[in-house]
């Protein structure tokens, strides 16, 4: 009996070993990435699954990784790039020559490059008109729509010839702003192949309906007609492969045969695959940055990828309990003085985050960065924080929390306590650490911070614009900046963030001089209004300015050339090449 | 037998119904709803209102549940907010892959665990039993994510024998096209199930070896091998078979971790992404599948026990 069981165990052991060896022979991997020699694999962010191929996004499908794939297939009218340290037009990646504005600034003439669709038809002005007609007909369902902006601000479209057209605007705009933040929204679409209905609304609905069928992306003839350096090779929910477009006629042809975008369940899964050499261009979770040397020994170079972004904690100025207190500039200054941005950036983010002191990205193109913002008007200084509160009638109560003793000096009712709740996103060690550090420093200044960590969706759903009388206005502070709170288009103006009643002005901040500066920044040809805007909001503190985390810390195969980490999250994969 | 099955099926339906009620209500009571998360920070209030109306979130929860139930009874599980695909299509793509992982792991676990448990029981207290029991406890106490990590480090990074992630693709064929990529996920799943089952099998065999009928058989001169395989083995199996049936939710939750660690494109990954994105239709669909599978698993366990253990079929018999 024992002998038989022993034999059984031996057989099982041999089978296991044999299967291990056989499968190892069948599919081991030693080089970086997956696929052939002139291919590259790129790791998408955790849980990110590209889900929209149509370069005309609807709400919910505007993720940057969708945009990367779309711009490789369909050349945008104008592309911008900030990887050189200066955000400017990327002419090679644009479908048109630089725009020519009329002297009165109320119209712009644009000439298309001689690009060709992959079915052999030339790209013409009709392809731009097709885009504009659909966006006009379905603007409320278009993901990039903001009232008063594109397409509302374009009053006329005039075709000069097959390659030249003129747009007329409703008023004179700052050409820099209009090109960077409005014309970049336009992507010529193959009207001859996609206009299945002469009614633009029906054409839009048709294309949206087709784009919703992910399972048909591989076979749908619509998506075969492209004018970009790449074409869709295969699409699944876990892997997307783009192949070089042999019919591309522009100046920015692809060097690689294929680029594969890989999806990952978590950053830990991605990191494991990275260490095993399964990815050419991946990312390193911040908690693993201590292993930088190991990655370098495996043939990766590790580089932070800074975003064209800012990170902040909005105050809810409409909160019934503390809205009045938040309106006091001295209180906002006292709170900002208690934020140790350098420590948070260096210790918690391991040197990958950048302190931010105002509404313009701090560590990229300095064109719009004021000296006030650059020099941090409210450095970490707990004594300054305490003094500001003491000078304005606040005294610590028995539990150490500041309490207003003089309504006139405080600007709020006597007895008001500086005890506030911060709704913050859960699931990130760095954010947890940041919030604990903030709580600790604020408590030293006598400000009690209660932290309420919730999933990101809950934070976004609850920390939003509200009326003071509404129960939805119970939130006081909110944080959704683990990957940066706000990514800008090329021109970092604040019309969506800090203008009165702006869509993403979650805290209901109102300031007439700020509104005027924002308006000027979109209309004036001078960049001074942007610099003044940077200075004003660095001083006025409409939010708590926080360190700005990187878009990601990248690990790039050292044999992969042509990679530029664009702060605007563009990839320009056509310029990548293998050095060996 | 028929009455027993009918009663158990009715009970199963009630359980599944209650699971859908509880899951639906809990999800829909979450503050804020999914609109902002799905549509992003730039979405306007009008767009959020339109989304809520299109999904029926502006209706009272009982009305929403009734609509859900009606659609469910017509085979419509809804559509994912983020994947642009019907939930039923997503499940049809992912479920075979998860079943491949869980069934293979469970079968391998059984193949290893049952003989091992018997072997340990027959050598109770000896060196082999002590060593394997110690190893089993270590493995039993090891979280599956840690075991997965150890396997990845050992066999994908230190010794680059196997890929650290499963093959990608929407079809089962894509997954099977790279069998090497299945080895580590299957091993991780097997490790967890094998240890648990072997402990049960050992205990069950030890108990049976101490029963009167074994002493009687020995007194009658029945060979030890016959006692073990003809009498003790079937009696010991009954409790393990029940356990396999009841462990479906454990196996599924284990596969969620394994899928996350090995980037395995199954139901666990689908569930994980849906939870992160507040994708209610997918969450409800996956929970429904797990509930049905769990109920079927326990039903199957009862039926198998009924078939292999005569004591269950005889009213008043000691079971």
In short:
The complex is a heterodimer of chains A (580) and B (319). Chain A has 580 residues and is of the alpha+beta class. Helices cover 30% and strands 18% of the residues of chain A.
Properties at a glance:
heterodimer; A: 580 residues; 4-stranded antiparallel sheet; B: 319 residues
Largest interface: A-B, 65 and 69 residues
Q: State the low-pLDDT regions of chain A, or none.
A: 8-30
Strand adjacency order, main sheet of chain A: 1-10-9-8
- What is the structural class of chain B? mainly alpha
Count of discrete alpha- or pi-helical segments spanning 4 or more residues of chain B: 15
Task: Give the amount of beta strand of chain B, in percent.
Answer: under 5%
Number of helices of chain A: 18
Number of strands of chain B: 0
**Mean pLDDT over the full residue set of chain B:** 86
| Major sheet attributes of chain A | 4 strands, mixed
Q: State mean pLDDT of chain A (0 to 100 scale).
A: 90
Helix content of chain A: 25-40%
Low-confidence stretches of chain B: none
Number of strands of chain A: 24
Instruction: Give the end-to-end Cα distance of chain A, rounded to a whole number of Å.
Output: 60 Å
**Computed CA radius of gyration of chain B, to the nearest angstrom:** 24 Å
Description:
The complex is a heterodimer of chains A (580) and B (319). With 580 residues, chain A is α+β, with helices and mostly antiparallel strands. Chain A is 30% helix and 18% strand. In chain A, strand 4 and strand 5 (107-111) form a beta hairpin. Chain A starts with a helix and ends with a strand. With 319 residues, chain B is mostly helical. In chain B, 77% of the residues lie in helices and 0% in strands. In chain B, helix 1 runs antiparallel to helix 14 (280-308) and helix 7 (144-158) packs across helix 9 (180-209). Chain B starts with a helix and ends in a 6-residue tail after the last helix.
